[in-house]
Amino acid sequence: MELNLKECIAGLKSNDAAACCQAAEQLLQPGEQAAPAAVPLIGACAHESDEVRELAAAALENIGPPAVADIGRLGELAGIEQADAVYWAATLLGRLGGETAAAVPNLVGALCNNSAPATNERIAWALGKIGPEAQPAFESLQKLANGDSRLARTAANALARIEGRA
Asked: What is the structure's pLDDT at 1?
């Protein structure tokens, strides 16, 4: 069966959990050809249904980097309150690396306003992937880099990449 991205994206935007699940399931295997559905998949990560959130996250695992044109919307999604959506927005921004410098302020804001350690680790990872262009995140990352937690190590690695030491 051929993937119909337009139908999948419409399904992900539906209020009907069954339609969202069906759309996310169709996007599980396509890999990079599903990249145009990245933003709607992240939106589905904020759905009220656990099943929708799980299927959307599973599809996001395999889609690779998003389109550069999606950076602005991904930056916006990094600023919402739903930790799973923020995690995936940061992940996709990190997959694009230095091209996502415009999203650094959104990522810094998310890092300062988020209490979920796994999400903050992913934000720190993404900032490290952005590299020197993520300099505005330096102070926020320094606050997290002290200690021996996984988050502290991720923040320290990000700082090294931003400074060009890694």
From this structure: 52
